[in-house]
């Protein structure tokens, strides 16, 4: 105040000059030398080139593994299509359908008014399934001048492999933004490649929805990480929000499980907001982006009620609307997910066929212990645990400080850089913890976590926020020592990883195998040449997806399991593997318009699962019958009066020959044609 009065009271020439010339104060930002700016730009350019190079390397790596494993370029078209197993074949068939249509308009009309995916039904596939990517690629292939130089199947698989480039670059950028050095991003990409078994399965499940969507989820996380940086200019914030919106939209449009992932993300943001670790304004903007993306997907999927009634949208909009949406819209499309969750966590036993079908699959079990052994072997698990532990302690201290001090403003003067824990770090910490728990509970979901795990582990190696508190605790902290560790450790680690794993990777890429499934090829060729194009086929979900792709025949059921009526239809069709009379099985199959039924020995005499998880066991329990073989049964289960249909029909004895005629057989498959118009045989 004294200095201020003196300045006001000064007169004459000095006072006049003082008013005219800006005063140099301690708040004036120091001028950064031009050389430092140039070096920073060059260093960033190098980091960007390394990111693109490692992304492309990942793409080439998985493409090479796919080619070497199947000799894909040398096998027949039908073998290429058979290699798209289970639901992968179903999704790829719609890309093929778009290409075979006489025009784009006709292709879209056929997808919107489809009557071949489910017999006796006309469904809107764009509403029911997430296949806009197949539509987009189909249109793109038709308009690009590449038909003579690139086959449709390669255009498809190269696009999916190319998304792995986007995936790795997004993880690279996320770790770079968190740590402040692109060495962290390089370490992220290397760990992603070395842990391929746990970070991606794209090389053998190419059309799977997660291979389309997870790269965009990683891009969204990178954009959120940038958006949560302090003191962004308005234009930078708008650009970041635009990228978040586009990536969230694309992620949601390409995977049916989008709503559950966004729900977990919304819950994480809600917790961060409550703990004052991220500003309410930015959390609100992210909520609005999520809501806008989901609503646009709802419109693009022809008002799909599963999206409008999702818990994610309900939670974001208002908790009180959850019951309204689920009751008013009579939602049942995703009830099997809730039954599965209830049974998985021991909230009551269930005989529900759909829930048990999930529970008995290894992919929906707990994360196996060998996963942690692989992650330890590549040295990613230890720095990950290190980083999560340190930052969890920091986050806890920050949250307690924010909540305990009523006078404490979590974001003083609106400056987020003055907070105890950076919002971007807080978000990524919550993201990796939430999805890590999800991965541990359900093995299939590890692909949502493992990639981000690599990014967070690399951040822990290269970040001063992790090293500084540790060095201070052991009383060895100096700025020079901290900087030395941040840059030396990742370089040494990259060198060690190259020395240890490069021979193994080269050996892996040199291994040559070949696709070999003659029985399935034989079946598909027979169907294509010996049956009507309008013939309706019944069988297992996994096999029928291949039947549709390879032959174009009509199906009774398929692996896209997100519809209540389809799940009930599948359970009915699967009575071919239960203890049912031939008359009842024939009646069920004819109700769906079935002309042919395909029986598989691998299901009828299954040994892969333990007793209680074989498909025939699930059907027996669901029907109230005791299971095959020695072992316990629930007390209220009773013996079935009929033998197992899939086994007994092979005898070709009445009354089975009254309703079914064997028309094809090989070592794996048996095809029976249903006789029509047969009346019930009178008993003597």
TrEMBL record:
Keywords attached to this entry: Glycosyltransferase, Membrane, Transferase, Transmembrane, Transmembrane helix
Subcellular location per the Swiss-Prot or TrEMBL entry: Membrane
Compositional bias ranges of the Basic and acidic residues kind: 11-27
Transmembrane segments: 37-63, 180-197, 235-254, 307-325, 379-400, 420-440
Entry GO MF terms: mannosyltransferase activity
Family membership: Belongs to the dpy-19 family.
Name listed for the protein in its UniProt record: Putative C-mannosyltransferase DPY19L3
Organism: Acipenser ruthenus (Sterlet sturgeon)
């Amino acid at each position: 105040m004294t200095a201020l009065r003196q300045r006001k009271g000064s007169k004459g020439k000095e006072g006049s000059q003082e008013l005219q010339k800006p005063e140099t104060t301690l708040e004036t930002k120091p001028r950064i030398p031009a050389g430092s700016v140039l070096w920073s730009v060059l260093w960033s350019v190098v980091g960007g080139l390394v990111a693109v190079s490692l992304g492309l390397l990942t793409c080439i790596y998985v493409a090479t593994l796919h080619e070497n494993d199947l000799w894909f370029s040398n096998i027949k078209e039908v073998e290429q299509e058979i290699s798209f197993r289970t639901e992968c074949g179903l999704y790829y068939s719609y890309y093929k359908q778009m290409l075979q249509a006489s025009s784009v308009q006709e292709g879209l009309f056929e997808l919107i008014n489809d009557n071949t995916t489910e017999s006796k039904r006309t469904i809107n596939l764009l509403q029911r399934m997430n296949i806009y990517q197949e539509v987009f690629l189909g249109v793109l292939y038709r308009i690009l001048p590449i038909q003579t130089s690139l086959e449709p199947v390669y255009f498809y698989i190269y696009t999916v492999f190319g998304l792995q480039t986007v995936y790795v670059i997004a993880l690279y950028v996320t770790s770079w933004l968190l740590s402040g050095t692109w060495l962290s991003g390089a370490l992220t990409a290397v760990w992603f490649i070395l842990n391929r078994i746990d970070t991606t399965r794209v090389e053998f499940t190419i059309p799977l929805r997660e291979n389309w969507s997870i790269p965009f989820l990683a891009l969204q996380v990178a954009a959120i990480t940038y958006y949560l940086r302090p003191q962004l200019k308005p234009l930078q914030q708008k650009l970041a929000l635009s990228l978040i919106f586009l990536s969230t939209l694309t992620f949601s449009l390409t995977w049916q499980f989008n709503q559950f992932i966004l729900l977990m993300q919304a819950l994480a943001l809600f917790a961060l907001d409550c703990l004052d670790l991220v500003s309410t304004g930015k959390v609100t903007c992210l909520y609005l982006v999520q809501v806008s993306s989901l609503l646009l997907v709802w419109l693009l999927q022809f008002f799909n009620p599963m999206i409008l009634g999702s818990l994610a949208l309900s939670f974001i909009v208002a908790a009180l609307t959850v019951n309204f949406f689920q009751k008013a819209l009579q939602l049942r499309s995703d009830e099997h997910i809730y039954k599965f969750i209830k049974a998985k966590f021991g909230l009551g036993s269930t005989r529900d066929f759909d829930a048990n079908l999930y529970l008995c699959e290894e992919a929906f079990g707990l994360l196996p212990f060998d996963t942690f052994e692989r992650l330890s072997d590549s040295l990613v698990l230890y720095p990950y645990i290190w980083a999560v532990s340190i930052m969890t302690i920091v986050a806890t201290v920050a949250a307690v400080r924010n909540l305990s001090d009523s006078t404490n403003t979590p974001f003083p003067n609106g400056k987020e850089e003055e907070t105890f824990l950076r919002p971007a770090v807080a978000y990524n910490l919550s993201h990796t913890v939430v999805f890590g728990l999800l991965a541990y509970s359900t093995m299939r979901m590890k692909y949502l976590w493992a990639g981000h795990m690599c990014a967070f582990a690399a951040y822990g190696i290269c970040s001063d926020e992790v090293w500084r508190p540790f060095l201070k605790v052991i009383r060895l902290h100096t700025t020079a020592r901290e900087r030395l560790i941040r840059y030396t450790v990742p370089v040494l680690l990259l060198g060690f990883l190259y020395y240890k794993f490069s021979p193994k990777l080269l050996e892996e890429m040199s291994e040559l195998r070949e696709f070999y499934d003659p029985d399935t090829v034989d079946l598909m060729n027979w169907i294509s040449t010996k049956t009507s194009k309008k013939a309706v086929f019944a069988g297992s979900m996994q096999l029928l997806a291949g039947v549709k792709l390879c032959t174009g025949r009509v199906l009774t059921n398929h692996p896209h399991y997100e519809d209540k009526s389809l799940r009930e239809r599948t359970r009915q069709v699967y009575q071919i593997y239960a203890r049912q009379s031939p008359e009842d099985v024939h009646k069920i199959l004819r109700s769906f318009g079935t002309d042919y039924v395909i029986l598989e020995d691998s299901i009828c005499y299954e040994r892969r699962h333990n007793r209680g998880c074989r498909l025939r066991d699930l059907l027996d329990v669901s029907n109230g019958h005791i299971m095959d073989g020695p072992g316990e049964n629930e007390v209220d289960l009773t013996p079935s009066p009929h033998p197992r249909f899939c086994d007994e029909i092979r005898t070709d004895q009445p009354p089975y020959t009254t309703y079914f005629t064997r028309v094809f057989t090989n070592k794996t498959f048996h095809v029976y044609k249903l006789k029509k118009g047969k009346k019930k045989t009178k008993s003597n």
